[in-house]
Amino acid sequence: MSNSSIVIRSASLSEAPIILNLWKNSAKWLNSKGIYQWRPEFFDVDQVMEFLTNGSDVYIAELNSEVVGTYIITWTDPFIWKELDNLQSGYIHRFAVNRDYKGMGIGNILLKTAEQQIKSRGKTFVRLDCMADNSRLNVYYQDYGFNYIRTINGDGWSANLYEKQ
């Protein structure tokens, strides 16, 4: 699939329910595969609105006017990255592709676009995290060129931190 067929643009406040729906559907799909990094019941529209209003960059991807994906870029992430958090990095969060469009390379297009957006802001590093027990997603990010930094442990969860220069 060519980049030209996908339109990636900033999300508007009125699109918060669409983004929430993408998150919940991705969570349901993950849960059906026995992966519980996201739980649909943990997401609500207020979380989307917070990202849309807190200085984060929230994006929606469309193909033929259908929403096919979303991601968020934050410019700091002390909660996850702790002392490694820095101003030279952009942090990709809530990366989700509509499962109706799986296998079309949309994830790669979204990652590449996010990477370009982060670099266009003068940042050196593209960072993201994913649940340590989601082996398929960890391999996906490594295959894309992200380097494993470390594993962090939260309350009942572990996440792997990745970075690409």
UniProtKB/TrEMBL annotation:
The UniProt record lists the keyword Transferase: yes
UniProt keywords, alphabetically: Acyltransferase, Transferase
Residues in N-acetyltransferase domain copies: 6-165
UniProt KW Acyltransferase keyword: yes
Annotated Pfam families: Acetyltransf_1
Superkingdom of origin organism: Bacteria
InterPro entries to which the protein is assigned, alphabetical: Acyl_CoA_acyltransferase, GNAT_dom, YpeA/RimI_acetyltransf
Name of the protein in its database record: GNAT family N-acetyltransferase
Natural source organism: Paenibacillus gallinarum
Taxonomic lineage from the root: Bacteria, Bacillati, Bacillota, Bacilli, Bacillales
